[in-house]
Write a structure and sequence with these properties.
Layout: H1 7-23, H2 26-36, E1 49-52, E2 55-58, E3 61-63, H3 68-80, H4 89-97, E4 100-101, H5 105-114, H6 117-150, E5 154-156, E6 161-163, H7 171-174
Parallel strand pairs: 3-4
Antiparallel strand pairs: 1-2, 2-3, 5-6
């Protein structure tokens, strides 16, 4: 898990995890329950939990206790960094959840991104670009499908008439011998 993280980031995550495990009693109590052989807990599914190197692993992901400095570090790493690229909620959740898990993770990511100005600007620019692209391609697609519906394969713009068959565009075209 932590092997895929660059060394400088790994040390920061590790130091934050030490701090976090001291601040949040949940991982320690879950690890105790696992050692005792307890089968059920209300707050976390023990069947998905294991201990690895003194850390709680939930469903193959490192459990990140409820500690804001750790979460902020993960948000900066997986959302704000240049390599992350200020993606939206879905992508940020996907990136973080590959390695980490915490209760209400999706909600926390949504709240963080709701306050991210860069993501807002990117999504507005992206929405404008998508609307313009749809308008351009939509008109071209509409013309293409209208042509398919009426059998037109080509409109000769120089002569103002269609070639390739189909229904006539107007009465003059119907009597046009070149059609």
């Amino acid at each position: 898990m932590l092997a895929d993280i660059p060394p400088s980031v790994e040390r920061t995550v590790e130091s934050l995890l030490v701090e976090t495990y001291e601040a949040d009693p949940l991982p320690a109590s879950v690890l105790e329950d696992l050692a005792k052989g307890t089968r059920h807990r209300k707050d976390i599914s023990l069947s998905l939990c294991v201990e690895a190197n003194g850390r709680l692993v939930y469903d193959t992901r490192l459990f990140a206790p409820n500690h804001d400095p750790l979460k902020l570090h993960l948000f900066h790493t997986y959302h704000d960094s240049l390599t992350a690229g200020h993606q939206g909620t879905k992508k940020t959740y996907e990136l973080i959840s590959r390695e980490y898990y915490w209760t209400n993770m999706h909600r926390d990511i949504e709240q963080y991104l709701a306050n991210c100005l860069q993501t807002d600007q990117d999504s507005e620019a992206s929405a404008v670009w998508r609307a313009e692209t749809v308008a351009r391609t939509g008109a071209a697609l509409a013309a293409y499908f209208v042509g398919l519906r009426y059998g037109a394969t080509h409109l000769d713009r120089r002569q103002g008439r269609r070639t390739g068959g189909g229904m006539p565009l107007n009465e003059n075209e119907a009597s046009d011998p070149l059609q």
